[in-house]
Amino acid sequence: MKLFTVVAPLAAAFAALACAPVCAQTCPFAPGPGQNNVPVIFWAHYMPQAPLSVMHVETDVVPLVTQDGNAEKQAQRTMEAALDSGINGFQMLGCAPDEYFEAAKQIKAQSGRVFYIAPEWCDQDADPVKNANLIADFAVKHADDPCIARVNGAQVHFFYGGVKWAAGDGLAKARQVFKDRGVKVLLNPTISCFDRLALERNDLAQHKPWPALEAPHVGNGDWLKSLGWDGATDFGVNLRTDVALALNERLKERADSFTFYPDIWPGYDCSNREFYAIHCRIQGLTSLRDGLRLWTGLGYKQMSFITWNDMNETMLMPSSRNVYGYAEMIRYCHQLAENGQSPFDAPKFVVAYQPEALLGDQAFFQCDILPEHNTVSSDYVVSFRLDDQNGRTVTTLSSRATTGSENDDPFLELRMDTTPLAGKTEVLVPYVTVRQFGHESGEMRTLYSNLRLAPIRLRYNNVRFLRPMVIALDRVAPDETVALSVKPAAGRTASVSASANGPEPLKRLILAESQLSAGSFRADDTLAGVPAGQIRQFVRIDIGAKTRCRLAVDGGVIDERYTPYWTMDACRTVGPAASMDYDSQQNWGASWNVFRITGCPNTKIVLTLDVKGTPQTIATSLADVLAGNVRRTIQVGGKPVEVSLIATTGTNEANIDYPLPASGAYQRTVPLSPYAEQVRVYHAYALTASGKVAYSLPVVLDSASKAPAKNGVVAPGERIPAPVVETQGAFDDFVDDSAEESRNPYGTSDLRSVDLPVGDIPYYRLALDEGEGVAINDAAVGHQYGYGRIEGPFEWLPSGWRGGCVKLSPPALIRIRSTSWPYGAVTVSARVRTPGGTSGGGASILSIGPFKATFEAGKVTVAQRFTMLSASGAVALSPGWNHVAFVYDLSRLRVYVNGKLAASSETGTPVLQRTHWGPEIRIAQVAGQRALLDGGIDQIEVIGCALDGASVSALYAKGQWKGD
Question: Which H or E run contains 458?
């Protein structure tokens, strides 16, 4: 097994920053341009709608900040958590509610700490006078607020997005309004990739970095000289050091009249939406650490963090994937910017690693050692022991670092090649040990010994969670403090149990798959808490229109209703109750509500919708919901509206404190989605009353039946050959900041073939049997494989190739959740319909993911978008349903029609696509020609490996790769 060790001392990181020396112990860094008379403020773009991750659907992160109390108390708690994280200012995106100002006043009165607030105006129209008066109104209203950020008495205001009213003489008109009304404000827009404008490289588009081997080009400064703003924040990516130095020199020209707020990009855009963009490599801790040290080293006292989407998603607030790790790093650098000193009385250790690792890659393990004030010069040895799910040690990685100054935070990175683990284990359990050696005495002490952390899921050809776990070790409870176990049982649902046995009560006890919460355990989730013969289930009700609703149950009770909202009092209704009245939509069009229901399988569920004064009723049972999602289409204002009831996991409940005693055993039922992966890896973790986290050992569940599969090509226990690219790098190494495509420096010599269990192969099937609505494969589980949505004109048909099907009419398409698509080798299978043969001529285009096939009379031409591969060959389509299969094996592209090879490419360079794009499925016409395909499509399968010809023929004959 290949092991790699990288040690990155601070001296190397600061080699290019000789122009900004670090003053020892008592004095701060020399101020950067325009930073002389400003306080140290680490700003966060902040949406008050999403401080505690209660806004997004099926969130994949659990905040560790409690959420009870009124809006002002929640704002205060959020600000206090931010202050503890080194963030002491919010750029309030879109709105600045009064409770935030009140919360800041309370914090100052209670602790003396100042939390700064600045408006971040957005979505303003083109009228400069109107908008200037709105800005002036705000400035007057908050003239005496001590938390408003000011420079020389002028309030600091920010802007997000294009500022239409500033064009031409707009700024001059606005400034005249401010003068007439006697207000002083400083105007700072957020500009994508500010460095390219300031250094006059506006030919480089957003997300496109400076060419790797090209020195920064510095022009004559026309853009900065003509700038009418008081400053600007960036919204680009972390800058290359030489580009940052060049920008710093340019900014010195305007130091007295212009303030630049550099941006720090700590992570991916990773909200749980259909499209998932990766344009910035974060390399665990590396990008955040490099950005912080770069700009503090250059003397910048104020900078902003790209956090506008969700504080938790961008990892600046403590959460289940950021267990105070980033917080400690930011807090450390914040105080360095203030006085050059460490804020800690004892050294801190922050570790980072991937929660999921792609087989063929290197898994990385990092540690940032944050020294204490007046540090004792020491050596540290950090070791990671990795066990499999059976407790057998796979390997141990270890490295040594030295620190001699409180300004010096040694950084370690260790890497492990995962290729030898293919097919041998599903999960790794990391244990970390830290030892300290005194320089003078030579004595050794163990600071942490085999501290167990969250497990690492090993995956082939697809990962679902790319953001690293970032954990402050002093926040992890030792294994003996809280012991947890998870014992799922196979079936359509999993019976999951967990136990706690520690010295202190728990705030929460949570079931998780990788970084996806599967819900919290509550005090009544015991065998005694559920009446005999009953079950407790979460049901998500999704309604595509705003209407008043009533949910009623007969033979059970509603325990609670949850919907996304920014305050807990508005997002929860607590029972028990036989019925609940609610609005289907209340938060920016969010259309779902989750109900916790206790009842029997035959418990009746009746949903009544008041559609413009006319009630419409949908009646079903808990058993029907568990058997598959219940869909109906109703008419609202002459338009069809989809209504669905789906068994789910109650993911969002994990955002809420459900306290438990120090010891106890709990059990709950979790539905196993038919669209999700076959092999699941669960673990549990607990948040203790004192704010520490304890992790259980993982449990692997294979939900596949052991009986022979009906209709399937492969058997459940079968092992099949799969190609792997041995990349010699981590996932991030190949992400391209500038494009949807990845860096692909691979050759055919990097390919390996491994035998994998069928359950390890990424797979999803679109049966297209829904019959109603626009949602495809909606199992109400965040980041589920294969979730899709139809856009444009379409028609559900009762008779397809098997069961129902859908007919797409141009420009209709099916948009698939981007995390579904495999990264490398893949087979795509689909049934498409033609009204006749090819004798009469005509042409159609079939696009599925990266494959685009053009069918003409007697010919097919196929291309794969991420490669230079294309193939053409003769083909004859039959009247009715035809089977099409695209196969990419990392070196060749093959196309099969009705089980026979129709075209094949030459050997190409392996492409292992790393950056998500939005995969689509569509059938298009060719201009001026009659359609060969009538738009009917059915039974789409995406298989994350390359099938051989015999398997494709069997797929054509049997109907599907995995059986029912």
Answer: strand 456-459
Give buried/exposed letters for 78-97 (b at 16+ CB in 10 A, else e).
bbbbbbbbbbbbbbbbeebe
Please name which of 312, 411, 435, 429 lies closest in space to residue 363, comparing C-alpha atoms.
Answer: 429
Rounded to the nearest 10 degrees, how much is the dihedral formed by the CA atoms of 835, 839, 843, 849? 70
Neighbours of 64 (CB within 10 A): 24
pTM > 0.90: yes
User: What are residue 141's phi and psi, to 5 degrees?
Assistant: -60, -40
Of 774, 692, 274, residue with least CA distance to 508: 692
CA-nearest of 526, 647, 632, 532 to 596 is: 647
Among positive and negative, which fits the CA dihedral 39, 43, 46, 48?
Answer: negative
Closest CA to 898 of 844, 837, 851: 837
Coil/strand/helix, residue 469: strand
Residue 268: other Cβ atoms inside 10 A: 21
d(CA 546, CA 543): 8
Side chain identity at residue 818, one-letter code:
S
List, in order, residues 6 or more apart from 445 with CB less than 8 Å away. Answer: 435, 436
* 3 state DSSP class of 833: strand
3-state secondary structure of 382: strand
For 852-873, give the secondary structure using H, E and C: EEEEECCEEEEEECCCCCEEEE
- Detail the DSSP E strand segments found in 532-591: 535-543, 548-562, 572-577, 579-583
Q: In this structure, what token pair is assigned to residue 571?
A: 């997002």
| CB-neighbour burial class of residue 442 (10 A; exposed 0-12, middle 13-18, buried 19+) | exposed
Q: Which amino acid, 395?
A: T
Per-residue pLDDT reduced to its tens digit, 529-557: 888 888 899 999 998 888 899 999 999 99
**Closest CA relative to residue 672, chosen from 520, 779, 820:** 779
Task: Please state, in angstroms and rounded to a whole number, the distance separating the CA atoms of residues 611 and 616.
Answer: 7
Residue range 843-899, pLDDT digits in tens:
999 999 999 999 998 899 999 988 888 999 999 898 999 999 999 999 999 999 999
Cβ-based burial of 48 (10 A; exposed 0-12, middle 13-18, buried ≥19): buried
Residue 362's DSSP bridge partners are 417
287, 281, 321, 322: which is closest to 305 by C-alpha?
A: 287
Joined tokens for residue 870: 């294309």
Q: What is the mean pLDDT of residues 562-587?
A: 82
3-state secondary structure of 304: strand
Angle, to 10 degrees, between the axis of helix 286-297 and the axis of helix 241-251? Answer: 30
CA torsion angle for 160, 162, 167, 169 (degrees, to 10)?
-20
Query: Confidence band (pLDDT; 50, 70, 90) for 494?
Result: confident
pLDDT tens digits, one per residue of 850-862 = 999 999 988 999 9
Spatial separation of the C-alpha atoms in residues 453 and 440, rounded to whole Å: 32
- Of 443, 413, 412, 428, whose CA–CA distance to 357 is shortest? 428
Q: Which residues pair with 923 in a beta bridge?
A: 846
Dihedral of alpha carbons 756, 757, 760, 764, sign: positive
Task: Find all residues with CB under 8 Å of 384, minimum gap 6, and list them.
Answer: 353, 365, 396, 397, 398, 414, 430, 431, 432
For 224-260, the pLDDT digits (tens) are 878 789 999 987 666 788 999 999 999 998 888 899 9
CA 860 to chain centre: 38
Supply 752's token pair.
Answer: 């390996």
d(CA 226, CA 215): 25
543 DSSP assignment: E
Q: What is the rounded average pLDDT of the residues 480-509?
A: 81
Q: Which residues are within 8 A (CB) of 484 and not within 5 positions of it... i.e. 6 or more apart?
A: 498, 499, 500, 509, 684, 685, 686, 694, 695, 696, 697
- What pLDDT is stored for residue 206 in this prediction? 61
Backbone region of residue 777 per phi and psi (left: phi > 0; alpha: psi in -120 to 50; beta: other values): left
What percent helix, strand, coil does the chain show, rounded to 5?
15, 40, 45
Rounded Cα distance, 9 and 371, in Å: 13
